[in-house]
Structure formats: C-alpha cells, structure tokens
Amino acid sequence: MNKKMLGALALLGLIGVAVYLAQTTAPTPLPQNTSGCQFDAQDALLFSFSQKGETRQNQQALGQKSGFPTPSGTTQNDVQLQGQMLWEVTQPQGKGWRIHAQMQNFTLTHSGDGQAQDLETQKRMLQEPFALDMDRRCRFVQFGFQTSVTTEVRQMLRGLLQNMEFVLPQKKPVPAQWRVKQNHALGQYVGVYQSNNGGLNLERAKELAPSAHEKTALRKLQLKPQLNKTQMTVARDANGKWAQSIKGLEEMQLFMGSTEMAHMRYEYELIREKIYKHQNSIDFKRSVQWLNAKQGQAVQNKPMDLSALTARVPKMPYEALLTRVQQLIDQKDYNAVWQFLALYFKAHPEVIATFMADIKAGKLADALESWAIMAMGKADVPEGYQALRTLLQDDTYPHRSRYRGVVAHLNMENIKQKNLEALMTLSNGWTEAGQGKPQVLASSARHMIGNQLSVMNKSGDARNGDMAEALEGWLDEAQPGFEQRVSMKSVGNSGDAQFFEKLKDINTSADDRTREVSYHAMRFMDTPESHAYFLERIKAEPNAEAFKELSQTVAGQSFNDERAQLIQMVGERLLREPNADIRIYLINILASVIEQAPEAKTYLQQQLRQERVVKVVQRLGEVMAMANADN
Q1: Strand ranges (DSSP E) for 224-370?
Q2: Contact 114, 77 (CB under 8 A)
Q3: Is the domain covering 3-292 a CATH 3.30.70.330 domain?
Q4: Which of 162, 163, 224, 300 has the fewest CB atoms nearer than 10 Å to its CB?
Q5: Where does residue 468 rank: exposed (0-12), middle (13-18), buried (19+ CB within 10 A)?
Q6: pLDDT tens-digit series, residues 326-368
Q7: Residue spans in the chain of domains classed CATH 1.25.10.20
Q8: pTM for the whole thing?
Q9: What is the CATH number of domain 306-628?
Q10: 435, 397 in Cβ contact below 8 A?
Q11: DSSP state, residue 82
C-alpha cells in the first residue's frame, strides 16, 4: 500500500461531507480575556487523554486499486492510546507560542486481525519529546519531531492533536456561530462552530470542502468519504490557556463507487489536570525536523547526503539484513525502508548481487523486492546501475521485477548513459513487443524517457536534445489509438512546451479518449498559448471524461493574466450546461481561483439557486463553505 494511501487511512477521522449553509445568528459578547489562547512564560499544562480508533479495511479492493501487495479479505485493526501529555511553554513564536511536549504514563494497544505492529518500537518513539507552535487563535501551526521518530508515529501524534484542534474566529466579539478553514493531513476542511457563552464552551462539526486542485490521496484514487457522525465539545476557562476538556466522536465510511473500502470510528477525550510553572523538565536538545500543519510537509526538506552517512552502516549477515528491512516495512515507515537500503547498498555494494539472484529466483517478499530495486538507483553506485540495466535487458527476470527496474529510474538525476541507452532500447522495441507484458515494459520505458527529459531540462543536461528528438519521433510515428496515447503521456511527463502544438494538432481530430489523454499531457505546459487554447476548449469540449481532465489541467495552471476571462467563460457555461458531471468540473475550476478572485462566487450563487441535482448541490456547498470560511 502506498504512503499516500496510508496517510489517508491513518487520519480519515479528520474528514467530513458538507453543503453550504448561510450563518445569520447575532453575536454574543465574549469575556475580555478569553478571546484567544494566552500563555505565560514557563507555563506547564498537564493533560490526561485517551483516543480509540476502530478501522475495518477492504484489503483486497485497496490492493487492486493501489497496485501494492495487500492481504485478501477484510482486516480489522483497533488502536487505543491513553495516558498523560505534558506541555511546557518555552517562548513566544511569531504571533503565538512554542511548546515542548511529551507523552507520560501512557499505554498503546493494537488488536484485531490487522498486520502485526512493532509495539515496543512505537512505544519507545512515543516517549520522545516533540514540539508544536500554536497561534493566538489556538491553531496548530507546525510540529517538530526528533529525526529518529518514524512517519507513522508522527502521524499518530499529529492526528491526536489535530483531531482536538479548535480555532477561534477573527471577529471580536466572538459570534455565536463561525466557520474556519482548518488543516489536516490531506489538506483542509471547514470547522463549523457554535458557542452560546462567548467561546467558553464550543461545539465543532466538520465539513469537507477541499479546493478543486488539491492533489489529495482521495482525489487521485477516486475515493469518496461518507461522514456519519462528527461532533466535538470543548470547555475553556477565562485564563485562555487552551482547553479544560475536549471530547469528540467521529465515524465515517470510505467508498470506491458502491464498494465500501473502509469503515472508521474515533473516540477521543482530553482533561487538563493542572497548571504550574515548569523548570524545563523536557529534554529537547537533539536534531528536530519541523513539519507544517498542512499535510505535514517538511519546513526544510534537504536531500539526504548518503556519502556522509555510509560509515555508520555496519555490515550484517544477509538474512539479518532482510529481517531488518522487513521490520521497517511492517512498521510502515517507507521512507526509512529505502533510505536504509540505499545507505546499505552504498556502504556494501557487493550485496546487490545477492539481492539480484534472489529477485531472479523469486525468493524475496513482494514489498521487500520492490523497495530493494528502488534503492539500487538511489544508492548511486556502479553495482546498482548495472543491476537496473540487467532488469531492463534480461527477459529471464520476472516481468514484475523488470517493470520495477524501469520505474526505479524515476527522477534519477544525472542518469548514467548506459542506463539511458537501455531505456531507449526498451522503448524502441515497441513494434516488436506485441501485446501484453512486453508492451507494458516498452510503454513504461517511454514514460521514463519523458520523465528524464524533464529532469535534464531542469539541470541543463546536454543530452536533453536527443531525448526530445526521440519523443518527437515516437509521437509522429505512432498509430492512432493506444500507441499514440502512450507517446502523448510520455511527452506530457517531460512538461516541455515545445510539444504543445503537436498535442494541439492531434487533439483537433481525436476521439474522446485521446482528447482526454492530451489534456492530461498538457498539464505542465503552463504558457499564454496553452491558456488561450484551454479557454477555447472550455467552451467547446463536449465529452464529460475529457472535460474532467481539462478541468484538472486548467485548475493547476496560473491564468494570472487571463483570470477574468477564465471566470466569465467558465461561469457562463456553468449556467447553461445540461450535463451534471461537466457542471461539477466547471465548479472545480472556479474553486481553484475563488480565493484570488472572489467574484467567481457570483456564478456559483446563481447556479445554487437553479441547481436541482443533489451531487452538484453538494459540490457547490463544499466550495461555498470553503470560500466563506475564515482563514
């Protein structure tokens, strides 16, 4: 299962389904000193907490969609974390505070038939101090973790806190009802709040209202959440020191079409036990990685320097190495898997030959083989490059392994010439490949050539001319149909605008499926010429699936100079479009510009008054909810 899917399933309790509801209730005055979160120097707050999550997953369906190996049938995994959490306020941070935190006296349990977890490792990492920045509206801004803490444990801690996050409004005095955009691991949702005593007691519900261009795991995998329950209550006191108590319940299902993929239920509770002055008891001296609250992205994402780290990787027996890698896979810390293997291959490249022998014999577990092949390219050693060339050239290896050898060249900087030639040979073998698995390898190799042209253009690699010539030749010679669409995708991977006119010419007389692919191939070609063409196609594209791809491409481009024209053209078609699906895609385009151009709301409001299809009303509500919420 891929990392984005794991992140989606780990924190889906943060998601809801929304329709737009106007808020008109008159404001209620707020006591003067409770307008936001306020802390004093050296404040310490001790909380007791509990969180229980019950997750049932349709593993077989998830595996079929993600392409990663998963168990068959349904798995149940229940997780409970409870104990104490200490906060120590250390210093003002911007318009808020930096807080050091640590779990204390906690228990962590897993149950059910899910994959076995390394509980002791997780418990050890949960004991590590972490940090958070909070602003004056009580919003979590960023989180800091020790570099040794795995991605899964970071998600667990961040999910615990963001489940319980409440954000006070900008307006003063605090109104009885307000709406706020809030962050979770997948992007943003809208928190819908009520308070009858000026913010001392709050109730929060959630509405899903993502931006159209938000590239979340849910959108990419065409998954649909259905929220059954979402309720949180917060009790505060006049000192403004965050919360006295928080209690919440969330329950939701995740569907792919009509198939239930997962069912999740979360219960959580927090009680503040005491406030006192601390003496910096939390030891927070080691290296920290800061992640912003939105999607948990690294604030500073520096590339890994393998050469400086290889001396720390001792050699171990081969079976012990396999066991260690499998442990990392079981912990779902996939960054650690390939980084550890890449470090090991760089320090001890002779072991790559043993891996290749086991790959050829089919002896490695599927996930372990996949990560090992990926790490061969990242290790940047001759033995690794040779191993990947062997997978490209030797048809006695399993097809699955050879395909992974192609993909391992993705975004490879300064690719070795022999590997590039092997990819070209595999790509040029299209006509001899025939149908089935050999053609899959040839088409995948063409996609990698497109990706390599993108890398070379950015780095100034002089070989980019040869790559562009090859892509242009394949596009010119391709027969209409599948081969032409493969060549178009390859050109699209390059993002090179020199191919735009060729794609445009093909689009003029293409069938629906080919036009769909052409719009996708144009997604990185963000130029005035492409904008003019997309404006024409917004008026004229008749096919819903092709228009869906067109809308996603348009939403991802700038259109700074043509924004007014874009809004007018999209809005006018929205008001007269008979196809409900196309209306949703038009709404998505307006959603992508609504923060910079609030005038787009005029068309959405007009459509809301005349819309009769439930799914379109729902999407209108989601976009309007996001547009009308506080930042």
Answers
A1: 224-235, 245-256, 259-277, 288-292
A2: yes
A3: no
A4: 300
A5: buried
A6: 988 887 777 778 888 998 999 999 999 999 999 999 999 999 9
A7: 306-628
A8: 0.67
A9: 1.25.10.20
A10: no
A11: E
